[in-house]
Structure to design on (229 residues):
């Protein structure tokens, strides 16, 4: 079935370091791909999205490119801040069995230290 | 503009009881989706309601049910609670149903503990 696999965390970085969180997916058809962020005690917030192959989603310095050939949607940021500390979820939206579904990865916790 | 509001924030129940959770979407949003978040299974989609009709559903047993009212507020009910139902239940609202133009906005969740 459809699924999303994220790199396990926690990822611990120093401020201003480069961030990559890997995400790969398995899906039939042409899913849309998303990154969500969850700050402590809060719900999920949409960070960025891409709806077709080679699309690049970007927001707040974060970027991810929809790579159909490698079925990947890796999240990157050039210089992380302490305020980026949160849990990041990769997700895909697919249509199967007559229903639309959002399928999430397990989440990757990021901790950024000053 | 108020965000998605979920009540209560915390709930403690015992096995065998039933529970009802509430979600008020962002004003003007007609789609409400429910998710279960646990450390073991992660985030899993339960179902989506749009205009008082269930439009999409995940792979949960019939003990999990929901409904949506004419003002778009939604409730989720879990009957015959099991220990494994302990989780953070998240609600998300959007203008349109799950599909190509859907962007979901999440509430802070209701944390349910089953003893």
């Amino acid at each position: 079935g459809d699924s999303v696999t994220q790199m396990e965390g926690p990822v611990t970085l120093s401020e201003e370091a480069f961030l990559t969180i890997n995400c790969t997916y398995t899906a039939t058809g042409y899913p849309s791909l998303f990154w969500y962020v969850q700050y402590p005690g809060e719900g999920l917030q949409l960070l960025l999205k891409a709806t077709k192959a080679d699309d690049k989603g970007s927001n707040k310095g974060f970027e991810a490119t929809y790579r159909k050939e490698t079925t990947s949607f890796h999240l990157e940021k050039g210089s992380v801040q302490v305020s980026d500390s949160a849990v990041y979820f990769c997700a895909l939206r697919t249509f199967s069995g007559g229903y639309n579904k959002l399928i999430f990865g397990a989440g990757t916790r990021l901790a950024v230290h000053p | 503009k108020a965000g998605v509001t979920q009540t209560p924030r915390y709930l403690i129940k015992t096995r065998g009881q039933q529970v009802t959770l509430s979600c008020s979407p962002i004003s003007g949003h007609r789609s409400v989706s429910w998710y279960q978040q646990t450390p073991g299974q992660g985030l899993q989609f339960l179902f989506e309601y749009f205009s008082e009709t269930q439009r999409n559903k995940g792979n949960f047993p019939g003990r999990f049910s929901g409904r949506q009212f004419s003002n778009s507020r939604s409730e989720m009910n879990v009957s015959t609670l099991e220990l494994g139902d302990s989780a953070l239940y998240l609600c998300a609202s959007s203008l349109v149903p799950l599909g190509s133009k859907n962007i979901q906005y999440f509430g802070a969740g209701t944390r349910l503990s089953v003893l």
